Inverse folding.
């Protein structure tokens, strides 16, 4: 077999391959055997039809076509390996010559991974938010905890903001009650803004047994977007009572005996969260700066496929689970179809560039992935997917996705290497050191998302 490579552009090549006919013998034998199992000829047992009879009855061309289809992947792979190319996606194959008994020639155009030059990235410098936990942050955290332990009790008075009212609703459009416009026994916290516009004003001041009507634009259902006249009947009014912020509450809501111990623990927890956010921000900013440093030729077919995959996943998986279509999603986002497509393309380009650059650094820095690191990453991915680790691991193995997970971990470690070499400062100009545990774990997730 002879092969030659023609570079069409930095990300695409054309292979020209010539195969001596004798190298097709194994595939020709397999073709005759396959046809033998599929056809019957009077006077011959199935599977025992001579080759010359098959040629006479069904044509030598059918046999050659079957043999060539069987052999092409093997010859293509040999040519790719011989040229030491890293193909991306499936090739476009064209048989240019097929002489029975003499020669098979074909061309294959395919996108390839571009060769990148990784410059010195130690000069990257980014600024991130400072880690600062104020007394106000701590008190807000404690208030949220108090809110979780709030109790309710019925009251015989007019409803006010913060109260919980139980209501029956009936929506009419053009004087007709909607089939899906009736709801009974709905609990609603006045002032939460989690139901219909106008309901807060309608129920405020009503006691149990009170009725009011208001006009509101429906946010869902068969008449979504239309103005409706809504009748609301208040069947119960309940007040929410927050526990006192004292030592008794600390013992109720935590493992601590005193409020001061709980307050100190809240501050530590908030500091850890802000350090985690700071590390994530540093990794994202360093990655952005790294991408600016490297010139990455973009394979157009790969980019097109990536854009289509992302759009398909959004439309048929993410939006479907939320009961939305793309048009409604764009309306909610306030974006035109053109703006959405441009944003999707930009995200896809960044994802491809990120993978190419970090894979190059993996090779350059000889990054390896240990079993423990792979297991930890698998556990994180399982958690984010909502599957048990065993279920996720089984799905990964059955789908042949283990190399993909190894690549994700390796790219995460490559980015961690770049972050470690970069200078990261907080808003005050002080150079900071990111916590190793947070950095390694979160770096992998940032890279995976990209």
């Amino acid at each position: 077999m002879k092969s030659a490579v023609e570079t069409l552009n930095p990300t695409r090549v054309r292979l020209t391959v010539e195969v001596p006919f004798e190298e097709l013998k194994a595939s020709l034998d397999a073709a005759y055997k396959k046809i033998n199992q599929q056809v019957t000829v009077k006077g011959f047992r199935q599977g025992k039809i001579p080759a010359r009879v098959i040629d006479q009855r069904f044509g030598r061309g059918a046999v050659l076509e079957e043999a060539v289809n069987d052999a092409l992947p093997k010859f293509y792979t040999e040519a790719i390996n011989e040229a030491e190319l890293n193909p991306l996606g499936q090739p476009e194959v064209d048989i240019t010559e097929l002489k029975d008994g003499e020669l098979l020639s074909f061309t294959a155009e395919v996108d390839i991974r571009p060769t990148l030059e990784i410059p010195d990235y130690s000069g990257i410098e980014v600024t991130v938010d400072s880690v600062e936990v104020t007394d106000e942050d701590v008190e807000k955290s404690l208030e949220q905890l108090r809110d979780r332990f709030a109790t309710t009790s019925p009251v015989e008075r007019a409803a006010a903001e913060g109260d919980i009212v139980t209501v029956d609703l009936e929506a009419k459009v053009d004087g007709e009650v909607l089939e899906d416009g009736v709801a009974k026994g709905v609990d609603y916290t006045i002032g939460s803004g989690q139901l219909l516009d106008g309901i807060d004003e309608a129920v405020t001041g009503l006691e149990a047994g009170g009725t009011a009507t208001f006009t509101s634009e429906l946010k869902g259902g068969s008449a979504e977007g239309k103005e409706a006249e809504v009748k609301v009947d208040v069947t119960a009014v309940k007040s929410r009572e927050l526990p006192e912020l004292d030592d008794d509450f600390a013992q109720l809501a935590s493992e601590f005996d005193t409020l001061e111990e709980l307050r100190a623990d809240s501050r530590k927890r908030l500091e850890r969260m802000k350090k985690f956010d700071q590390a994530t921000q540093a990794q994202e900013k360093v990655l952005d700066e790294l991408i600016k440093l490297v010139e990455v030729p973009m394979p157009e077919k790969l980019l097109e496929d990536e854009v289509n995959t992302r759009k398909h996943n959004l439309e048929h998986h993410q939006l479907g689970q939320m009961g939305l279509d793309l048009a409604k999603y764009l309306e909610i986002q306030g974006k035109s179809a053109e703006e959405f497509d441009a944003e999707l393309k930009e995200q896809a380009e960044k994802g491809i560039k990120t993978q190419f650059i970090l894979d190059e650094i993996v090779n350059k820095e000889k990054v390896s992935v240990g079993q423990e690191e792979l297991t930890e990453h698998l556990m994180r991915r399982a958690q984010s997917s909502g599957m048990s680790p065993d279920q996720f691991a089984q799905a990964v193995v059955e789908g042949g996705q283990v190399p993909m997970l190894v690549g994700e971990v390796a790219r995460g470690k490559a980015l961690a290497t770049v972050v470690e070499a970069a200078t990261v400062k907080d808003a005050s100009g002080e150079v900071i050191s990111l916590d190793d545990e947070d950095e390694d774990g979160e770096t992998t997730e940032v890279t995976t998302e990209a």
